[in-house]
Q: What sequence folds into this?
């Protein structure tokens, strides 16, 4: 379906849980999130019906996210069923990677084609600090499992945090020399769950290019501007929600684990589909796509996102 600003909406981010086994400092508070009652969350059945409705309106790609999607006990069944929905031609997942040693192969077999793993640092003590409870060894074992499981594409997402990992830009980018992966640097967004890093920690993705003068520009892909280090097997991607937003070509809507359609990541507007029958769900989805705002306004390092949700409650 085309939205009211002429943008074809073809991409759904489906959050399957708000819960997570880590507590990244820019994403969610130490104490976690107030656990919603089980009956407030979408059931697996509702998630699948929502994807079916979305596919009827022209959604072709679904990214499964959270919270940490691999903590969801029925994650394999959800992935399998989403991949079977007529019209869905691309299913991907975003994960912290910790549980991939057990789950990479089953996810691939369930029909997940592409995988993004979040990794902000290659130093064990810094990984433990930023995630508050994670182990770098486990995340790297997850990356290795993903590389061996035969996904069509493996990407790493690194949130750029000034004074924390800007010195590691060359080391993170160098992963693309060793493996056929894309390493994507993402600007830190001023979300509600990010209590630890203020405007002073924001650095634009242009800093990545300053640190990688040898990088050669390649074509854009989705929201990422792509570069390649000489001789590298994979690419370096820059994602700039703040310094150069991509609202004009935004093709996505989001569905939260508690059943709220979010036409825009940074808007407070939400449309509930929890408990609806197929026809009503389709109607609300049409309404969400048509009502997608033109842009997220003046989001910048000094402003805050309008949504009161933290990233784990939306699905990044
Ligand atoms: N738990 C999974 C993971 O970490 O990959 C999936 C959910 S997580 C919310 C999705 C992505 O959002 C991660 O790559 C994470 O780094 C990113 N993210 C979370 N908070 C962010 C923020 N304040 N600014 C930019 N990216 C953020
Ligand atoms: Fe969990 Fe992902 Fe948020 Fe980190 S970024 S706390 S792994 S949901």
A:
């Amino acid at each position: 379906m085309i939205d009211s600003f002429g943008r074809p909406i073809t991409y759904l981010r489906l959050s399957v849980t708000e819960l997570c086994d880590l507590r990244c400092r820019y994403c969610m508070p130490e104490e976690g999130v107030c656990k919603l009652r089980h009956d407030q969350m979408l059931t697996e059945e509702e998630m699948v019906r929502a994807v079916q409705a979305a596919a009827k309106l022209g959604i072709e790609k679904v990214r499964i996210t959270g919270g940490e999607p691999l903590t969801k006990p029925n994650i394999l069944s959800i992935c399998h069923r989403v991949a079977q929905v007529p019209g869905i031609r691309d299913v991907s997942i975003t994960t912290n990677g910790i549980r991939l040693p057990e789950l990479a192969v089953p996810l691939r077999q369930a029909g997940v084609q592409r995988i993004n793993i979040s990794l902000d640092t290659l130093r064990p003590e810094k990984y433990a600090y930023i995630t508050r409870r994670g182990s770098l060894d486990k995340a790297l074992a997850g990356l290795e499992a993903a590389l061996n499981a035969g996904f069509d594409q493996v990407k790493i997402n690194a949130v750029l945090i000034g004074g924390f990992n800007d010195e590691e830009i060359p080391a993170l980018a160098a992963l693309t020399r060793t493996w056929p992966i894309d390493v994507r640097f993402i600007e830190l967004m001023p979300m509600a769950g990010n209590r630890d890093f203020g405007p002073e920690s924001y650095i634009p993705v242009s800093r990545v290019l300053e640190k990688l003068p040898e990088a050669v520009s390649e074509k854009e892909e989705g929201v990422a501007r792509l570069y390649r280090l000489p001789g590298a097997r994979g690419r370096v991607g820059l994602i700039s929600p703040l310094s150069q937003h991509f609202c004009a070509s935004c093709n996505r809507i989001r569905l939260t684990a508690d059943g709220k359609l979010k036409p825009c990541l940074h808007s407070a507007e939400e449309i509930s589909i929890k408990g609806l029958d197929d026809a009503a769900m389709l109607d609300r989805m049409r309404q969400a796509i048509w009502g997608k705002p033109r842009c997220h306004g003046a989001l910048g390092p000094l402003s805050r996102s309008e949504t009161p949700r933290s990233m784990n409650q939306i699905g990044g």
